[in-house]
Each structure stands twice: as C-alpha cells, then as structure tokens.
Amino acid sequence: MALFWEFFTFELKFRFKSLSTYVYFIVWLMFSFLNVASESFGPVGNSNGKILLNGPWANAYNDIGAALFGIIIIAAIFGTSILRDFQRDTYQILFTQPISKFAYLGGRWAGSFVTAVFAFSGTMFGTFLGTFAPWADHTRIGPNHLWTYLQPFLSILVVQIFFLGSVFFAVAALTRKLFIVYLQGVALFMVYIIGITVFSATRSLERFWSGILDPVGFILFDDVTRYWTVIEKNTMLVTWSPALSGGVLLYNRLLWLAVGLVSLLATWALFPMSVEALTARSQGRRAAKAKQQELTEAQPVRSLVTAQLPDVHQAFTPGTTFSQYISLTRLRLRNIVRDIPFWGMVALLIAFGINNGHFAGRVAGRNIWPVTYLMVQAVEGSALLFLYIVATLYAAELLWRERDTHFDGIHDALPMRESTDWLSRLTAIIVVELTLLTVAMFVGIVMQTVAGYYHYELLQYFKELYIVTFPQVLAFTLLALFVQTIVSNKFVGHGIVIGLFVLMPILYGFGWENTLYLVGQTPTYTYSDMNGYGHFVPALFWAITYWLAITAVLGVLCIALARRGAEDSLRARARAAFRLAPRLAPLGLLFVIIAACAGAWYFYNAHVLNEYLDSKARRQIQAGYERQFKQYENLLQPKVTAVDTTINIYPERRSFDGNVRFTLQNKSKEPITQVHVTDQRQSVTNLQFDRPFRLVSSAPRGIYSIYALEQPLAPGEILTLTCNVGHQTRGFRDGNEPPEFAYNGTFFDSDYLPYIGYNPNIELDDPRRRREEKLPDLEEMAHRGDPTHSVDNIFTRESDWITYHTVVSTSADQIAIAPGYLQREWQDSGRRFFEYSLGSTHILDFFSYISARYQVRKEMYHGPNGDVALEIYYDPAHTYDLDDMLASARAGLDYYQRVYSNYQFTQFRILEFPRYRTFAQSFPNTIPYSEGIGFIGRILKPTDIDFTYFVTAHELGHQWWGHQLVGANVEGSNMMSESLAEYSALQVMAHKYGSDLMHRYLRHELDTYLRGRSSETRHEPPLALVQREPYVWYQKGGQILYTLADYLGEDKLNLALHNFLTQYRYANANNQADAHDNVRAAGAIDGSYPDTRMLVDAIKAQTPPELQYLVEDGFNRIVLYDNKAISATSQKTADGKYKVTLEVQARKVQADGNGAETPVALADYIEIGVFSGKKDEEKPLYLKKEKFTEEHKTFVIIVDQQPTLAGIDPYNKLIDKNSDDNMIDVTKQ
Amino acid sequence: MALAITGLSKTYPNGVTALKNLSLTIGNSMFGLVGPNGAGKSSLMRTIATLQDPDSGSIELDGIDVLRQKDEVRRILGYLPQEFGVYPKISALDMLQHIAVMKGMTSAGQRKETVEALLQQTNLWEVRKKALSTFSGGMKQRFGIAQALLGNPRLIIVDEPTAGLDPAERNRFLNLLSSLGSDRTVILSTHIVDDVRQLCPRMAIIASGEVLLEGPPNEALAALDGKIWSKVVATNDEMRALETQVHMISTHLVGGQHEVRVYADGSPGSTFRPVDSSLEDVYFLNLSQQAKRQLPN
User: Fold this and answer.
1) B85 and A407 in contact by Cβ < 8 A?
2) What is the ipTM of this complex?
3) Which of A655, A1098, A1132, B89 qualifies as a cystine partner to A1060, CB 3.0-4.6 A?
C-alpha cells in the first residue's frame, strides 16, 4: 500500500507540474464560461429562450458535451500515464525493482483519475464564473446551487472519466503504443458521432436500449428529458432513480461503470511486468522465426579486395529537378500508404460512407430516392471531417518526418531546391486527399446502385468533390503546413490548426460573418436539381480563389522558411529566407496580387454593389422597424380589394420589374387621412394615388412611408394605388442570396409588393434576440372577440378579399405562373407572356409569381361539382411523385367536396421550386412545392409513410381551410387553417392506408408535439388559443381532431365542420368594392371574422353530453394522460375461448403554459384492447372505450383467439408522454 | 580540390561556443579530425556540409563559396552525419535509388549499377529489400556509408563513420574510403585515433572549437620521439603523487594496474622507461596542454 501511495503521489506531482493539466482545466473553464456568458456559443444558449443557462438541465447537457469532446483528453491523460515509462525507457529500471503490479498500475491509474477529475472540474468553475459576466443574459441565469453543479458532474463526467479512462488505460497498458492511445480516442469520438447520425436518421421511437447503450449520453439524455417542459428542465435533475424513464440513466451508468471495472481488472490480470507488451509477444515470436530462417540461409563469402565504384554522370537540369520532385513525392506517398493509419482512415471513410449513403435515401423517417445531390451530401459529409483530419495530421507528419526519423542530416544535404522538397510534401497530401475524395465518390455511386437508383450524374459528383470541396481542403492544407512551419513543436501546431478549425464557426456564431476575414470561409451554397449551383457559382469561385491565393502566399512563405539544416529556430530560418527571397518573391507577389484582386472583386460585389448586412444588422433593421412603427399597428387603413399587376421576370438576371395597381377601400366607419406603406424588400418605387396626396415621411430603406391624402377617404370610398415594383440582382452577395430569384425556379410572393400599414410579421420573434435588442416580450395576440382585431383576418390584415388579374412574362424557355386561370399566352420580342385572371372569384391577398423551365403533367378530374384541371409543373428529372400527387389531389377533392363544400376553383396546380426553401405553400389554386420535400418520395415497404400524398392533401385542404374559411386576427385562428388542413389530410390518408399505418404516423406526430412543447420559448397555449406554435397547430391539432372523429364518429365531426364552414366562410367578402362590382359605400363596413369559439361551438353541437369533456380538453386545455398497462394474463376457458385479465392504469393531468402539471380527476372514456398476431402486425380481438373514474382498473375480457398483446389506448389516440408503455404482452396461465 | 576554412566562429543560442575563429586548409586527400566530445568536430562538419551557418568566417572549396553557394556544394557532397535515422518501411534499395535520383544521376542504368555496387561494397546486398527500420546499428551505419558515397562525391564528409562497426566491417570501410581515389577531399572525424593514422595523410586535433594541432600524423609522431615515458603504478595514492611531479598525459589499465604515460624531454625518473610514441600520445598531449593553458582563466 505504501508503494501504491508512492506511485500515486508521484503521478500527481508529475501531473500537477505539467502544463497540459492546466491547459485542459482552462479549456473546460472557457467552454463552460462561454456556455453561460455568451448566448451564441453553446447549443443551450443558442436554442431556447427560457432554459436557465446554469440550471440543472443546461449543466447536464453541457457536461455531456464535455464528455463527448473530452474523449480525446481522457485518452491523453490516461494513455500517457502508462506510456511515459515506455517512451522514456524508464521501464527497464522500474521493472527490475521489487514493485507490485497493483501499486504500479493502481498508482498510475488513480493519479490519472484525480488529474482528469480536476481537469474536467473546470466545467463547474466556468459555469459559475459565467453567471457573473456582466454582459450575459441575466434573465436566463438562475441562483447557483451547488448540487445542480455537482450532481451532473458526478453522474455524467466522473462516471465518464472512470469508465473511458479505465478502458483507455487498459488499451494503453496492454499495447504500449502512443499512437493507439490517440487513435482510440479519435475513433471512439467518430464512431459515436456516426452512431448518433444513424440513430436520428432512423427516427426510431425506441427509447430504452438506445439510452442504456449510449456511452456518452446524448441519446440517453434525450430519452429521459425529451418531453420535459421548461419548468422541469429548470428544476429537475436527471437522477439515478429507477422510476425515471424506466431507470434508463441508472442502468446506463451501472453498465458503463461495470465496463470500466472490467477493463481495470483486465489490465491488472493481463499486464505483463516485463519489457514486452502483451501484443508484442506473438509478433516477437514471428519475427524471431523469420530471423532464424534468414541466418540459416547461406552467407556468401565476400572478397576482401575493394572493387572500384562505377563512374557516374551527374546532371542538374530542370529535368533533374522534376525527377527529384517525382522521386520525393513517391517516397513520401510510400511512407503514408505503408502506414496502417492511412488504411484505417480509408476503411473508416468507406464504412461511414456506406452508412451515410444508406441513409441518404431516408430523410426524417421517410424514404426518398437517393438523388445525386443527396448522395454527394451524404458521402461528402462523412468524408469532410476525414479530409480535414488528413490535412492536419499529414501536414505535420510530412513536414516533421525527416526530423522525427532523424533522417534530416542526410536529407537536408541533398542537392535539391527547397521548393522541390516542399512541393513534394504538398503533392503527397494532395494525392491522399484526392484519393479519399475518389473513394467517397465510388462509395456514393455504389450506394446509389444498392438503393436501386441508377441516374448517377457523374458530373455533379465531380463538380462538388473536386471543384468545390477540394480547393477548400487544399487551402486548409496550406494553412496547416504554414502553421507547422512556424511552430517549433508538432503538437503545438496541431493545437493551433484544430483551434483555427474550431474557432471559425464560433466566430461566425458571434457575428463575424464576413467571408473575407474568416479564414478559409466560403459563402454557403445549396445545390438544386432545378437550378444546379446556379447563382452561387461566382461568390463561391471568388471566395475560394481569394482564400486559395492567400494560403498560396503562406505556401510560398513555407518554402522560404523551410527547415533545412541543423538550425531550425525561426530567426535562423528567417535569415535563410532572405537568401531565397529573390527567387520566391515573384511567385509570392503573384499570389498576393491574385488574393488582392479576388478580395477586391468580392468586396465590390458583397459590400459595394450590395449592401452588406450581417444577421445582427438584419435583426437591428427588424427591431428598428418595430420600435418606430409599431405605434401604427392599429391605425385604421383602407383595405385592398382588387389587385392588378404586370410582372416581367428576367430569370437570367435574377430580376423582375413590373407595375401594380391596388384598389383600396375604406371599410371602416371613420374617414382615413393617411395611408401607410411598408416596403420590406425595397422593391417599391413611384407610388401614386389617384387623388392629391403628399409624402409625410419615409424611413431609411423606404421600409415605412406615410402618405397624407389631401381629401380624407370617406367610409366606403375607393382609392387606387399604383406603383412600380422590381428587384434587381447586382453581382453577388456574401451569402444571404435571396432564395426567391434563380436562373431556373424564380418564386416570390406579395412580400415584393407594397403592404398597407404596419406588418407585424417583420417583428423579431426569438425572445433571446428581442432581449438583445432591448425590445419587450413579443406582444400576445389579441383575445377572441377583440373589436379591433376581429375585423381583420389573420393572414392578410391589409385586406379582406381581392379579385385578381395579372400579366406575367418571362424568358422564352420558361413558363411563368401566378394564381388564376390562363386567359391568354403569347410571345413578344423573344419573351413569353401569360395573362391570368380569377374573374370575380374572391381570393386572399396572397399570391405568388413563379417561373421555371417546366415539364407539365395535366389531368382532368371529373367531380360531382364539375371538372377540375389538375396540373403539375415539374423538373423533367423529378417524375417519381407525380402519380402520387395526382392521386392525392383526386382523393382530397372527393373527400373535401363530399364533406365540406364545393371546391371554389376549376383548377389545382402544383409547381416545383428549388430547395433553397423547403416547404409547400397553398396559394389560391396554386401550390408551390419545394423539390426539397416532394417529387423524390419513394415507398419501399407497405408501412412507409407516404409523405408526398399527405402534404398534397394538406395543401389541398387549405383551399377550404384558409382560402374559404379565414379566422380573425386573434389567438386560435391559426389552428382553423392548419389543424383543419392537417385533419383533412389525415382523413384522406386514413382512407387510403388504414388505421394501423395511421397509428404509426400519429406516434411520430405525438413525439413531435411533445418535443415541441418541451422547447417552447414562451408558453404553450391550448389548441383553441394557439398563437405562433406550429407544434400545437399541426401535430396537436391534427391528433385532437383525428381522435375526436374517432370518438364522435367521422361523419358527426365532418358535419360540424361543414356547418361551421358554410356559416362563416368568406367573411367580409361581399361588402366591398372590387374591380368588378361596386357595392354601395354604406354597405362596405367590415364585420367580424370567425374565431375558434364558433368552431368549438359547432363541434360541441354535434357532441353527446358524455364526450363534451373531450372537446373541452382538446381545445381549451392542455391535457396529458399517463396510461399504462400493468399486467395481462390469459386463461383458456372450458368452451375454447380465452379469458384475459387486464390491469391498467390511467392518469390525467392538466398543464399550464410553462408545463407545471396538476392532476385532474378522471371521468374519461379510454379504449381498452386485446390483440393477437405476429409482433408489429397484431390485429385487434377486442376494442372498447371504457369509462374510467379511478386510476387503476382491472378488466376481464373473453376473446375467441389466443391473445398476445393487451392494454390501454392501444392506438395512442390520447396524448400520453409515455406512449410505449400502453401495451403489455399477455402471459398465459 | 582544396577546402579553405578561414576564421570560422559559431556560438549556439544556448551560449555554447562550438567554433572559435577556426581556420584550416584541407587538401585533396583524406583528412582526419580528432577531438574529444563537444570539441566542435560535428559543428565544423555540418557547417561544411551546408547544414549550418557560422556566425563569422568563410569556407571556400575550389572557388565555391560554401556558405553561399550551398547547392553547388551539395551536388558534389557525400555526407554521413554522426547520428541519423531512416524512414520506416522503405527498403535500402528503394532509398538508395531515391538518393541517387536526388544526386542528379539521371541515367536509370547507371543508377542501378552504382546502387548495386554500393550495396555489395557495404555488404547490404542480401538485405537490400528489407525495410531500413529493421536494420541493426551496424547495418544502418553501412547504409549511411553507402548513401554518402552515392553519386561519386568529390567532397566526402563522414562523421564518426566507424562507430558501431565490427572490426571486419571497419577495415572494409577504411579500405573502401582509401580506394576512392585521390582527386577528392575526404574529411573524417573520429574518436579512434588509430583510424586516422591508418588512413589520413593529414590530420587536425580540435578541442573547444580550436585547432590544437594540424599536420601529417607522422610529423606529429616524430616530434614526440623519445619524449614519452611509461611506468606501472599500483595505487591511486601513488598516482596522485605522481600527477603533481610530472606531465602525465594518459593512463591505461593493464592487467588491473595503471600504466601511466608521461611527457618529458628527459627521463622523469629511474622507474620510468622510454616507450614508442603513438598518435594517441599526440592527441592526449595536445589536449592536456590546452587544458593547462586554459587553467589560469
């Protein structure tokens, strides 16, 4: 024991004298400090506006982050403790002493453990210090409690240090190779990252084993806290209680502690106290055998007379230089490829490529065709990290190799130029990088083939990998080479290179977004099948040229400062550099000139031709708009009643121009003296009214202008506004290219037209950003019945309904589309013109202009209420989903017309647009649909979710819910379009796919809802009061309505919806003047729009008394169930039937907006079911809604067949935080 | 070929003075450099081999300014550093082929011929395809010799070439060196004074960065004729006493007893007997004289 203590204290003394211990400590201190002190640094700070930055959840999450990134530090601390003796050859002295294995290994291990705990404790100090940073967001910093720091630290980091440290210690002790120590750290890190990607790609709802087997904790943590609300996250610790999420944390920790313990035992048992490593023994035996063989071979007798060496001829010509270069490069490549790490990297690259490539065809749990851009993204994504690791590692290896192997004495005296030598090093790295890229490409092609997709698009692989990615890697390589040239130690160099790599995104997060000063940065780009690399090309090209030229200058400096000879101090090399200067200066100057020109051209485009706005500046504009003009939000303004536009799109210039004519009418009871106009895109010019007016004021960028009418606009009176609109693309920007304009796939909407009055949609909504801009909390939406807001509709406050006419033109090879029926199409001076009109049909003041090179698929739908022309405008390559979309449109038209009302148009069009934006949006009879979410869908198994079908039905549903029925501009109204469209689509889908598949789909919807509420940044409203919460209006709304249809009967609910729709649709549509019919001035006064009170009433009218609670719970409260099957047994009865005894539990709570829950007494109908069949294909034998008034209930049910599964709420119709414990296997008795 | 070294001085950043205003002229023959550890031999050789710049001084080789025209020197240089490593997993053959290319041997046939001849000469032929990293110390040293002789260098600098060689290989190497012909400058540094006697028409003794003696070994030996005396001493006390009385230049153990060698113009005492002088005596005498000179400081 004394000896153990001796080793232990020695280890500690050694560690605490070593700088690295403190560096690790400081790293964690800074990491945690920034997590609290800067909201732009850590994921917690970045994500949610209400989670305390020093609360238990944040601390635990950051600790897991430290556990992940700390893998390499743990490897370094534990691995080196044992290797030190072997590196410095002290083992020969040590092992000849009488020391016990326990004292030696135990002392080393314990010393490392204490050191690692000390290093990682920096996280706690950092967080603590961060809470005192004066600039931090103190609304998100709670009181400091010791235990909320210690508990996560102990249960996450200390356990992690114990387990990983022990494993690494074991591997290091048994192999005794430093390289393996680092490699295992890196490998575990990478494997974990990949594992996480795979797991999230499968969107598995399996939450038990995935959590237990997670060695780092992200999945584990997600399993436990995924549905935690803000209050829970700020008050609850993730404890080791077996009750918490089924004890996932407890079992996980126990498992990994055990792994650590086993590693320690293995080390103790297997470690040889001898010179040879465990692995060396067999190698040694093999080597000895070979040696023996060699010695027995006959050695020829040599003459003692020295033979003359042959005469040689030397030549030093440019050809010689070239041969030298080739020979050096070959030698260096041989050094690389004959090393195991290289092949390890290739193997890992292939493995990751196969894995990611496999999931290229799966996005968010859906199958899609692995089109080339997805596959390239997948294989390149996995390769990219490798390429940067290769650049970092090999830059150092190649520069230091001669010194590391002590070959420099010979090498440096060889007659070659410094440039030849250096270029051969660079070339070796380039060859390796290109090889890896090519491997990635082949993996991609193979994986496309495996997935059954044969449209390879080799050119796209080539462009992305070799033209876009490779130069960036090359620039990084040059940077790494330069760093390694400057520093005096390889590992310091690694630190700096990795630091630079990590620093850039952090700086970007802090608002340093300028490509010209973020080293190696290029503007973001998106490849689109429709538009290729499109308008991103020039910005990318110049950014890459700029950085490549700058790093090439560094490359020239590398040559000048190359280490050669015995003196490698930087000063000595700088002196030598002066000697080389005359030869290298012209080249360096050339690169400087290229860099300057590229930089200047980039600057001219991004900062002179275009206004450069980083995200902070853009937020400031938004905040300024709100601060200055929110006062006018409720100012009475005339409403737009008719729109007539002429729009000329110039796709090749990414521009448009046109003129606009608005018919405005005063639909209030007061005269209006001023007209306010918002122009958020700086697209409006030459605004005129048809009567005398003057400009009162105009804000910078013309974002808000106030016009005074000389004659006030009397109630009912009509005013015409005309103006020019346009957008002109000039050069390129530093990222942030408006996605609306593309060479192929222009798509912009009424945002580019003037907006009458103050537009609250421009306001910042992220609470974090609002606090940063010193804005008050985002204003709550008005209550239902609010007199001011009830006369406005929720989508287009500036208007009620309009009639619409437009002429759109575009280039000759494209089709331009806007809402409306095509009246006329003609060509004029090489351009195509289209005239669209909707006649007297009323639509929302919401329209889009689209132009692209389309293929068109047309079909006529013959419905009960007349024909509807179905048209899909698509990219010629994207034919996969067309039938599906048409089928969905037909099914939707059938269903909606049958149960809701007639379709108000005679056409329905779907238009593909580039994936710069990924949504589908319902404009009147026109659905722009992103290539990023549709068009490449694929159904592989009958259980696959047909997302295209669903989205199409949803958008079609909006033609009723949104385009016929619009709610008032008050809380709740959003659900009347989104929830009802979602419900409509669910029904259309259920009619095609049946309730089993719907169950599968709805469980994902439920998961999304519960996760959504757990990251709520304000407060969660009940469905009928929803404001800006998509997870409520989509996922919760859909589920509530679908379940209501199940409880009430589909027909009953649909009748309620039909009644509601027909009573309230087109509110305020017929009391206005528009282009066609003039209503008398006195009649044109706005009434109220409907709100959710009318919807709930309509539903309640069809609901029997015993189910009224369900409507109340669904719409007006946040209600959560905790239903659970406790036990189920079956007994064969005498008459050959089966008696099932089923014990279940039902609980119900009501939550407030922050997630605080209070139990609610039960008087609820909940389904009980008994099932039979193969796993995951069970069919119900018995299904009945039972009334629950108490928590526990036991049922005895007789069924005809042998049951396998039984439980409560089997189809997850109710909202339940633990949706997977509802069912239990039936045990036979 | 003649190498003129003039006024070479070098002080390392850590304060160690390696070369002190050192001047030497090395002619077209084998030149031996002897000196104790840290004498500046390797610094001098690295400087000539273009790997290091002096603080002051100049080196000229047949009109080539060695310190400026490094590339010219490298083209005719064969250099074997005192310590060197090798790339792992590259064979001797491949490595020599590579160095041959680097040395401007453009003809592939000639390259092959030379490399093979050298492999034979250095007795590495059998292991030419084995990775250098598996070589033993002696094999590695022979490889070092082979690479230094590649490309028919006219300036050969070999730093401790015989260290780690067994007696047979050492002889073989010395033979090889001496057979290289006379039209080149060979500088050989060694601890083993005998190497120099066997090989070098001229030699220099260096200590603390200075030349203590320069000239043909024979002349140096002749100067000591009849001035070296020897005596066997039994105890340390006796030796200590002797040290104060006579100019003792070295002691050797012979059968467990100390044989003391003393420098004196006449017999230092009746117990001393005259012995033949050896080059080692020259070496030790010079070193001890230098130590004495420095003592007052």
Assistant:
1) yes
2) 0.92
3) A1098
